[in-house]
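User: Second chain of the day. Same drill as before.
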Amino acid sequence: MTGQGEAALVLAKRAGLYREALPAPALASHLLCRWVHALPPGPAVPVAVVPDGCVDLLWVGGQLVVAGPDVTAAHPVLPPGDPVVAVRFRPGAALRWLGLPMSEIAGRQFDLSEFGRPWARDLAGRIGEARTTAERMARLEAGLARVAPGIALPAPEMAFVFRRLGRGPEEAGLAALRDRLAISERSLRRRCHEAFGYGPKTLDRILRFQRFLRLAAAGEEATLSGLAAAAGYADQAHLTREVRRLSGLTPAAVVGQLAAGRLPDRAAA
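Assistant: Same format as last time:
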C-alpha cells in the first residue's frame, strides 16, 4: 500500500481511544489483558490491525467474535461511536478455550457460536443486554470467569517460546529453543501452529516487528537504522521490507504515528 492509501491508513491503536487494562484476577492465568476501543462518531477511519501473535475475543457490532492470529495487517471496519470491548488470550490459551488448532482460524474472524462452546450463546445474550461499555466488559469477564475453572491452562512451553522470541535477538534462536524444550524441529513447528496459528519462524518475524513498535513508541532510538539494529533486523532495508509486509506502512510512517500518539485533526473526535 503506497501513496494516498498509505497516507490515509492508521494503526488501529492510534485511531480513536484505545485502552488496555489487566484482566480480572480470576482470568489472569488465561488472559493477557482486556481492552476497549472507541472511534468517534463520523466517517469510518481506515485502520491497520497489525499481527501480534495473539487471539482476541471481541464484542463488536452486536456479536461476540473470535479474531484469529493475523499473519499480515487486517483492515476491519470498526463501528464509529460504538466501542469494541474485548479480551486478549495468553499465548496458547485460545487453543484450550476454542478446542481447535489456531492454524484453522489464522487471519480470520468467526462468531464464537461457531466453535460449539455451550456457554457462548448465553454469554453473548448477557452482553447484548448491557447498556454501557463498562457493563458489557463486566459481563464479558464475569461470563468467562464462570467457565474458566473447567478450561485447562495454556501449556507453559508455548508461553516460554512466546516470551523467549519476544525478548530480542540475544534471547532468540530456534535451535536454542528446541534444545531448551528437548523437542524436534517438527514438533516445535506443529505445536506453534496449534498454539499461535503459524510456525516458529513466522512467530519470530511477528514478535520482532512488535519489538520495533515498542522501541518506536518509546522514542529511545533516533534513527531507523538504530531501530532496525535494536529490534533485531539485519539492516534498515530488512526493517523496511518487513514493516511494509506486516503493516502496509513504511517504518517512517509507523514511527510518525507512534510519536504523534493521536490521529490528525480530520480523524480525531
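The CA atoms of residues 244 and 250 lie 6 Å apart.

User: Great, on to the next one.
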